[in-house]
């Protein structure tokens, strides 16, 4: 089931997202899904932590969706590399297995949020709302 789109005014601008997914088919499916969300602007994709750090440096994403099971190099390394930037993005760990130990490990390693890949369709919009709440007017 596709989640409802973000409501007008709930996020006042498009959120810049970088996708880090090693598996080409999964990356393609995720990019297609994100293209349907009007509140999202995909600024790139990467297959490795090093590539992600380089792309994050020039694309300046606000959110990086990271496959937390990258086999060659750890997703924790990608998280550390991107956290070193002055305008560090929010990190969302994409988990193959949404069990609590995996979620806790991702959050302990520096991810701002974690979600199972199977729940991403239902969870992405609420997660973005939590990470980027609407600005409150000044009193």
Question: What does this protein look like?
Answer:
With 139 residues, the chain is of the alpha/beta class. It has a single domain, classed as Response regulator (Rossmann fold, 3-Layer(aba) Sandwich). Helices cover 38% and strands 20% of the residues. Helix 2 runs parallel beside helix 3 (75-83). The radius of gyration is 14 Å and the shape is globular. The N and C termini lie far apart (39 Å).
List its salient traits.
alpha/beta; Rossmann fold; 5 strands; globular; disordered N terminus
Q: Could you outline the blueprint of secondary structure elements for this entry?
A:
Elements: E1 15-20, H1 24-35, E2 40-46, H2 49-59, E3 63-67, H3 75-83, E4 90-95, H4 100-108, E5 113-116, H5 120-131
Parallel strand pairs: 1-2, 1-3, 3-4, 4-5
What's this entry about, in short?
By secondary structure, the chain is of the alpha/beta class. It has helices at residues 24-35, 49-59, 75-83, 100-108, 120-131; strands at 15-20, 40-46, 63-67, 90-95, 113-116. The protein is built from 5 helices and 5 strands.
Overall morphology: globular
Q: State the distance separating the first and last CA atoms.
A: 39 Å
Look at the structure and give the mean pLDDT. 80
Looking at the overall shape, the CATH architecture is: 3-Layer(aba) Sandwich
Order of helices and strands: EHEHEHEHEH
**Structural class by SSE content:** alpha/beta
- Across the major sheet, the strand order is 2-1-3-4-5
Number of strands: 5
CATH class: Alpha Beta
User: Main sheet, how many strands, which sense, barrel?
Assistant: 5 strands, parallel
CATH topology, anyone? Rossmann fold
How large, in whole angstroms, is the Cα Rg?
A: 14 Å
Strand coverage percent? 15-25%
Low-confidence spans: 1-11
The structural domain count equals: 1
How many separate helices?
Answer: 5
- Report helical residue fraction: 25-40%
Q: CATH homologous superfamily, by name?
A: Response regulator
């Amino acid at each position: 089931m596709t989640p409802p789109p973000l409501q007008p005014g709930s996020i006042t601008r498009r959120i810049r997202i970088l996708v880090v997914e090693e598996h080409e088919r999964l990356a393609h499916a995720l990019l297609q899904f994100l293209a349907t969300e009007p509140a999202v602007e995909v600024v790139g994709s990467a297959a490795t932590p090093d590539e992600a750090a380089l792309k994050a440096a020039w694309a300046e994403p606000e959110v990086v969706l990271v496959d937390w099971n990258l086999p060659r190099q750890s997703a924790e390394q990608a998280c550390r590399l991107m956290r070193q930037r002055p305008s560090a993005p929010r990190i969302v760990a994409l988990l193959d297995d949404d069990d609590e130990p995996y979620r806790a490990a991702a959050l302990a390693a520096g991810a701002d949020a974690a979600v199972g890949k199977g729940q991403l369709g239902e969870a992405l919009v609420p997660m973005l709302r939590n990470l980027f709440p609407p600005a409150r007017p000044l009193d």
